[in-house]
Every structure is written in structure tokens, then in C-alpha cells.
What we know:
The complex is a heterodimer.
Chain A: E1 12-21, E2 24-34, E3 39-43, H1 50-58, E4 65-70, E5 73-74, H2 79-82, E6 86-89, H3 102-113, H4 124-133, H5 149-161, E7 167-171, H6 179-194, E8 198-202, H7 206-209, E9 215-220, E10 223-229, E11 236-241, H8 244-252, E12 259-263, E13 266-270, H9 277-286, E14 291-296, H10 301-311
Chain B: H1 2-14, H2 16-34, H3 38-42, H4 52-60, H5 64-83, H6 86-90, H7 96-125, E1 134-135, E2 150-151, H8 153-185, H9 188-204, H10 210-214, H11 231-253
Antiparallel strand pairs in B: 1-2
Helix pairs in contact in B: 1-7, 2-4, 2-5, 2-7, 4-7, 5-7, 5-8, 5-9, 7-8, 7-11, 8-9, 8-11
Amino acid sequence: MTKQGAPALPAIEVRGLVKRYGSNTILEDVHLTVKAGEVYALTGPNGAGKTTLIRCLTGLAFPTDGEVRLLGRDVHTDGSRARAYLGAVVEAPAKFYPQFTGTQNLQTHANLAAMAPGGRRVSRDRIREVLALLELTRMADRKVQEFSLGQRQRLGVASAILAEPKVLILDEPTSGLDPLGIGLIHRIVTSLATSGCAVILSTHHLREIATYAHTVGILTGGRMVDTVDLRARQAAYRFRVDDPVGAASALERLPFVRRVSTRTPYAIAYLGGEAGVPDALAHLSNEGIRVFEASPDHFDLYEYYRERVEQA
Amino acid sequence: MLTLITLEFLKLLGSRSARLALIVCFVLPLLWAFAPRLEVLMKVAVVSGWQIPAISIGIAVQFLIPLFIAVTVAEMIGTEVSQGTLAPLLLRPVDRTTVIASKLVVALAYPVLLVGVTVIGSLLAGIPRGYGEFTGGTGMGPGLFVGVGTLTSNQALAEVLRGSGLAALMLMPIAALALLFGVLLLNTAAAALATFAALNLMRLLVVFPETIQRVLLTSHLNLYAQQTDITQPLILLIIYTVGFGLMAVFAFDRRDI
């Protein structure tokens, strides 16, 4: 007899979240679930309630109704335990004590992280490691008031990942960063998610996020109007060919191809996975079609988002 | 908790308002001690260095030190909110009660620090007048500045220490009140003004019967020089401190940041 393990507890679980300020409803019956290793991007127009939702998720704001659980613990009634494995940046740029150096600020956060029930000490080596990871070693002993906005933002991410979190919540993590800085944050987030950390980040950079987020939640007027599973939409591949129409009809004959379309100079095919790419290429070659390039055809999240927000 | 208290102390000592307050509390007694018309204004013949602390505290405690306390303690919350550093603190696995209790501990220690620096400045200022035996009073013991005969150095020191301790204690409710307003208003200027307005409002209540006056905080801001039984006012001031402190803790526990 094989024993079946209990279903894994969601790392982040929001149920029926409502937040009102007086008669003004900011969040209305928001539900969301993020599993370990999942990157959840939260997006929506300005004033949609993203920051309020992030503040409720981290326990900084208290909901009018509903609950938020981090690793199974209610963040509002069992805050210190729920936040034991939380890393978060809730403002852009991240805020630190300007009179202290980068290292001193991180040391303060390390000391506070160690105050968690059963929390372990964060070593000085770990502080140096995260500073190096965020390319801040040169600034480590300078006062934070001398940091640029981008450097503060990177220090914020350094502070969030300092205690090796299992849940990472970031509000606009790439705000104020240059393209290299943005790439750095993306790599860190992806690497953390790969190691099993659940990540929620709010962003407006949809085309960037589409390349590495697993799920996108679209929040408009305080309501979660759509949740898009990007993994289910990334099975399409595009082939730059000399004859897109001919390529499309050739690909359509393959048994593992579910759907084809053309977007000159591309033929687009839903292959069900990258394992079908070599066979598709071989088939096109046999049909005498010259292929110049084959790559995943990313789902256009921006277009989808625009339509969704307009409909809402 | 010790980590947070240390952090709060470092922030307090790093804040401009606290530094300014400490400098003023230290320098003012030196100025007063050498002011040419001091004895005329105070109607006191200063014959010993032991009398300077009472003069300094008597002047500073009515307006200056409460103002410093109101501003600096209000800043402990207000500046953190405006700088955005309170939220990162609360994102750590520390419960809110511990965070605000640490702030309260440091806020209550601040009057002790201010009075202590005032006394040190006063004792330095008193050196030219000497610290030997003298006829008269320290201003903090029986007979106030007139005294009840001759005072030895040890007796004078004991009176100054007792008076200074009581002065610090009587200022603690103001610190707790400023912290409460800080939590309620989340803004330095608003909280400091609210604290000062509350104190002035209490002072204006002199028009009410004596029974009401007896329970007012401002009626006991001369505790350091009081020679009658101080048990009742002492208990009242402790109740005010604990009451304001607990209200700050409860208000902070469910406050959106």
C-alpha cells in the first residue's frame, strides 16, 4: 500500500480579504493562493489596491474582514510566528535608517530576524554575502543617506533575503533600478523561487514579469478580476521561416501540434512542450521550408492585461 | 527586547532634537549660574553650588524640558513613519507589543537623561560657589532655598539626588503621553503639539475645584521640591505613566502602518 502525503500547505493564502477606510472600500473579497516555489505577480492600474493588499499580506495593515495566512499562520493574530520566514520590501525605494551604514542596517535586521520564535542567528558572513549578491560591497560601510535610490532598493532586497525567507513579498522591487539592476533582481527572485521560496511581487512591468512569473493576478478597483496561469500559456513556439503559410500547414499535419497560426514572418505552433521542437524543425526541413529561428512565443501579457482592465 | 531597546537608544541619541535638548540642558545651567540678574529675578541669595541644580531644574521643568520631551518622544514614532522605517521594523518576526514597549522604555528614560544632564551642568556651574557646608537650603529640601540651618555636603548631595530623581519621575507621564499621541497621530508635529496642548489645557483647569486639581498631572510638576507627604502624588504620577503607556501599547497593537 502506498501512503499519500498530505497536500502541501500553501505558502501564502488570502481568503475573503476586505479592507475599508470609512465608507471607502479599498479591497473587496480578495482570494489568492501562492504555493512554495511559485512566483506570483500582482498587477493593476494605479489605485487598484496593490499596496494595501501587500500591507495586509505582511501584517502592516489590518483587514476589515477575511484572513491572511503565511505558511499556515494568521499574520494578524499570530504575527511574529507568521513573519518568522518572511522577507519583504513594502516601499520603493526601500527605507532604512539614514544615519547608519548599509552593514549596520542589515545587522539590525539580522538581530531582529533572530528574535523569531526558534529563529536562528544571521551571521556576519551572510550579511557580507547578500551585500555582494546585490553588488553593494563597495557601499557596505557608507551611511545609507549617501546611497542612490537604486542602491537603496537593492539594499532593501538584500534585507528581505537576509534571513533566507520561505515567503518573499516585494512591492515594485525594480522601481528606480537600471536595466542591469532589474536583471539582477529577476535572477535573485527566480533563484529563490527555484529553491522553494514563494514570491509575491507587485509590478507594472508586465513584459518583464511574463518571462519568469508563474501566475499573474490582475487587481482593479480593489477586486481580483483575473488570475492568469502563465505556465499554461507558454506552450507556443514561433518559427521564423521563408514561407509562414506553408510552414503553418506543414506543422498542422504533425500529431502533437494542437493549433497553428501565422504572424509574418513567423509560423506559430502550440507544441505542448519544448520536446516537440526538434521534430517540428525536422519536419519543416523535410518539407523544404527554410527555418531561420525557433523560440518560445511568449504570451503577450500586456495586451491581455489591457483588455482585461478595459473590460473590468 | 534588549536588541530593540539598544536600537531605540541609538536612534534617540542620533536624533537632532535629542542632541539639541541635551546640549541646551547642559549649557543653560552654566548661563544661569553666571547671569548677573539671576538672584534678583529668582529672589534667592545663591551662596552654594548645591543650589544651582534646583534653580536650573525649577526653570527648565516648567516649559523647556516638557517641550523637549514632547518633541523627541513624538519623533520616536513620527519620524519613523515619515522616514518609512517603522514598516521594515514591523515586517520582522517581532510582536508589536515588544516594539512599542521598547520605545516606551526609552521614552521614559529620556526625562532621566535630560534631568541628569541638567544636574551635571548645574554642578559644573556651581564650582565657583563651592560645595562645602553652608547655611541655607538646596531648594530641593526643607525650607527650600532658605533652609533650616546648616547643611553638610552629604546632606546637600542627598537632597539634590532626591529632588533630581523626583523631577525625572514627574516628567515621565509627559513622555508616555507624547508616545500615546505619537501612536494615535503618527506625526511628530501633531503629536508634540497635542501633548503640549493637553498639558496647557490641564494647567487651565485651575479654575475647577481643588478635588479636580489634585488629580491633574500638571498640579504635581513641582514634586521635586515638595516636602510634604509625596506618596499620593507619586502614586498618581505612576498611574498616569502606566495608563498612558498601556494606552499607547493597545493603540499600536491594531494600528495600520
